[in-house]
Write a structure and sequence with these properties.
The chain is mainly α and about 500 residues long. It has a domain at about 115-385. It contains 23 helices and no strands. Helix 4 (about 105-130) runs antiparallel to helix 5 (about 135-150).
């Protein structure tokens, strides 16, 4: 891939990538949340060369294959991506002999760690794209880090869901499509098609992104049919291969190329689009603007791109629109048992990219000042999701009265509120544990499929080094030393990035 603008930005891009990754590594928790199915597929690929799950994870007959075994309805892309991380977890377990209260705990933690790498790569690609959209290195870095730490990408970098991998592959496809056409580089268009194909393999519905991509190709070809075909074929071929692989994958598992595992799942059906759209805007449990306020400014900033480059505005905005409308049309548009609007994590890069121009406005301009305030609020808004695992805080026995509708439409049941309340209680408790002024709860070992094991850690903030401390695997000084070392490294990377971007802006 040709780096944008100038070779001097190679180091800037590397610093953005490393800064994001180090902060994600410092704050990851290793919690699977509820996405155990993808882990099961990754595990069995490594251990048995099979894509079946070890057991019926969610007790749903719709997931039973024609051979009697159970299969995940999710795309195979995420488990394949996670294979190296699962293997690293297995090697670590075998090499250290470390057992953390439950079989395969380390392997699951390493599986989740893959999302930290995917999220950091998404931030890196956003930096490169922002540069190409005309932003300075400082503005591009600010845009990328806003995505990384002022949106739900941060909390989901800590969980086992496929949201970060979906965001990465979708952005990969769109960015390389834009670059391949604007730079007249056919080889890059092939890479773009591979990105779109991988996105489809991660989440089937991401194939819808080819609609705004096709419109972009037509607009950039200015009515020249031959040029449009030359540009479309390199993108379309890898996507077609991904479609065929998916159909074959479905046929082998369920005997029907169109059955992904959702065909007989009553939860996979359509509902009123208006309900989903209103929920994404204003519901206390899933409002995008509550969980990531900066995205509201991202929408407003589309006007800046529209005035400069309407085709690009349609590519970015069309990607957001087509996927948002699809998810809003689902009966369970909220993704269920999720922290905030999980389905919309994949479109977050395209909502943040328009902010690039705003970050380049004069320091004293009204929009620039507003942007600084909202970005700060958005970073703070990520704290409840970063500090506390929502599956431990939001589904406690004392919250049993919060039914599905209350979790969506009332502040009392909002995951944001429940996590914030839990964080306020757990921060002083964990400080006392680390300081040795309070006795730590005893953590009992658990069987592999024990569902109550996570509740035994409900008193802990959601950080890997704290989990290891509470499990008596490491001491408090070692835990704090590990966390502090990563923060110091992040501070050094941030300082180096700030120096380089300041020097670049002064030229």
């Amino acid at each position: 891939m040709k780096l944008p603008r100038s070779g001097r930005h190679r180091i800037d891009a590397l610093l953005v990538l490393l800064l994001s990754l180090v902060l994600y590594l410092a704050t990851t928790g290793g919690s699977m949340a509820t996405d155990i199915m993808s882990y099961e597929v990754a595990k069995n690929i490594v251990e048995h060369g099979s894509v079946a799950m070890s057991f019926n994870v969610h007790d749903m007959d719709a997931h039973r294959g024609i051979d009697g075994r159970y299969y995940s309805p999710y795309g195979v892309g995420h488990p394949i991506y996670a294979v190296p991380f699962y293997f690293a977890g297995r090697v670590t377990e075998e090499a250290t002999g470390l057992s953390v209260g439950k079989p395969e705990a380390l392997r699951k933690a390493f599986f989740v760690l893959g999302n930290a790498f995917a999220a950091a790569a998404t931030v890196w690609l956003t930096f490169l794209f922002a540069l190409r959209l005309g932003g300075s290195a400082r503005a591009a870095a600010a845009t990328a880090l806003t995505l990384g730490f002022a949106t739900l990408l941060w909390p989901y970098a800590k969980m086992g869901f496929n949201a970060p991998v979906a965001a990465l592959t979708l952005l990969w496809g769109v960015y390389l499509l834009w670059t391949g056409i604007r730079d007249a580089r056919p080889a890059v268009l092939w890479l773009s098609g591979i990105g779109f194909g991988c996105a489809l393999l991660v989440r089937h519905e991401l194939a819808l992104a080819v609609l705004p991509a096709g419109l972009w190709i037509l607009l950039e070809s200015h009515g020249n049919v031959r040029a449009a075909l030359r540009r479309t074929i390199p993108v379309a071929v890898p996507v077609a291969v991904a479609v065929l692989l998916t159909l074959y994958y479905n046929h082998v598992r369920f005997g029907n190329p169109w059955n992904t595992g959702y065909l007989h799942d009553s939860t996979a059906t359509f509902g009123p689009v208006s309900t989903g759209l209103w929920g994404f805007v204003a519901s206390p449990g899933r409002s995008l603007f509550l969980f990531a306020p900066v995205t509201a400014l991202g929408l407003a900033a589309f006007a800046s791109i529209w005035r400069r480059d309407r085709a690009t505005a349609l590519l970015l905005g069309g990607t957001v629109a087509v996927l948002t409308l699809f998810y809003a049309s689902q009966l369970y548009w909220d993704a269920d048992r999720s922290y905030g609007p999980r389905y919309l994590v994949a479109v977050l890069p395209f909502l943040c990219l328009p902010l690039t121009r705003w970050f380049d406005l004069p320091t004293k301009s009204t929009r620039r000042r507003l942007l600084r305030v909202v970005v700060l609020l958005s970073v703070l808004a990520q704290a409840p999701g970063v500090l506390v695992d929502f599956s431990k805080a939001g589904y406690r026995p004392e919250h049993a009265h919060l039914d599905y509708q209350r979790r969506l439409w009332t502040w009392e049941g909002s995951g944001f509120n429940l996590n914030a309340q839990a964080a306020a209680k757990l921060i002083p408790v964990n400080i006392r544990y680390l300081a040795g002024t309070g006795p730590r709860p005893v953590i009992r070992n658990a069987e592999y499929k024990a569902t109550d094991f996570a509740e035994q850690f409900a008193f802990s903030l959601d950080f890997w080094w704290l989990y290891l401390f509470h499990a008596r695997a490491i001491s408090a000084p070692v835990a704090l030393g590990a966390f502090g070392s990563l923060l110091l490294l992040a501070a050094g990377l941030a300082w180096a990035l700030w120096r380089r971007c300041s020097h670049d802006s002064a030229r």
